[in-house]
Amino acid sequence: MRLQASIPFRAAVVTALVALLGCAQAAEDAFVIPAPAFDEAPSSSSATAVAVFAGGCFWGIQGVYQHVQGVLKAVSGYAGGSAVNAHYEIVGTGSTGHAETVQITYDPSKVTYGKLLQVFFSVAHDPTQLNMQGPDHGTQYRSTIFPVDAKQREIAEKYIAQLNAAHVYKKNIVTTLEDGRTFYAAEAYHQDFLVHNPDHPYIAINDIPKVRNLAQMFADIYQKEPVLVTPRANAKRFNPGGQ
Fold it and tell me: Is residue 229 one of the residues assigned to a domain?
């Protein structure tokens, strides 16, 4: 499990779990799903757009979208609660209403909201897990979409209905839609965590497989170099090809 404690302590706990369970059991499966039948039209304007998703630990969600073409920035943070409790240790209690969330700024001329949703429901997380994701448990790890407008809500609602009707998953999607929520950026040490810490046990077990799945299943929109919030010259870069 991902404890709300110091990162070194969490690494030790995860390492112990790996020894007991094995890496293959810890990684989540990806789903091959159809593209949304209803989506926004590609835009030719120079304006950017924002999508806000929650689906478990924000390290992995951020890491996935940083490798999607058309994504200009992906920021880890919190949404669902208030500004006063938008802090990691408090959110970790599961009592704030917040979910670990990623705010994605993207270019609608290169990637649509529906395509971002397809990645979200396919490789970024398992949308059938209620108030949990893999080893993480609690409402702060819930599967949630935070639409920024009525069009995004319509696209998301219709896509969820489409996927449920197609019986893509063994269980129904439990993803919620929460309107009118404010996004608060997380602490600096959480930003670009996957890129800067590819050997961290939690990342290696739970999140690196997601980026590999993105590269394999969405080769048309995968980009090798991630877009970073806080670039660091000596960061270890993850290459799904192993080179």
Answer: no
Structure tokens at 103: 């705010």
| Residue 241, amino acid | G
Which residues, including other chains, have CB under 8 Å from residue 110's CB and lie 6 or more apart?
Answer: 69, 70
- Condensed to tens digits (0 to 9), the pLDDT of residues 229-242 reads 987 655 566 677 54
pLDDT at residue 149, as a whole number: 97
Q: Give the residue numbers marked as catalytic.
A: 57
Tokens of 154: 């319509």
Q: Is residue 72 part of a domain?
A: yes
Residue 73 lies in a domain: yes
pLDDT in tens, 52-88: 999 999 999 999 999 999 999 999 999 999 999 999 9
pTM confidence score? 0.88
Report how many domains make up the chain: 1
φ, ψ for residue 185 (rounded to 5)?
-65, 145
Which residues on neighbouring strands pair with residue 102, listed in sequence order? 53, 76
Residue 155, C-beta contacts closer than 8 angstroms, at least 6 positions apart = 36, 38, 39, 40, 113, 114, 117
Specify burial of residue 11 (Cβ count, 10 A radius: 0-12, 13-18, 19+): middle
Distance CA 101, CA 43 (A): 25
User: Residue 79: inside a domain, yes or no?
Assistant: yes
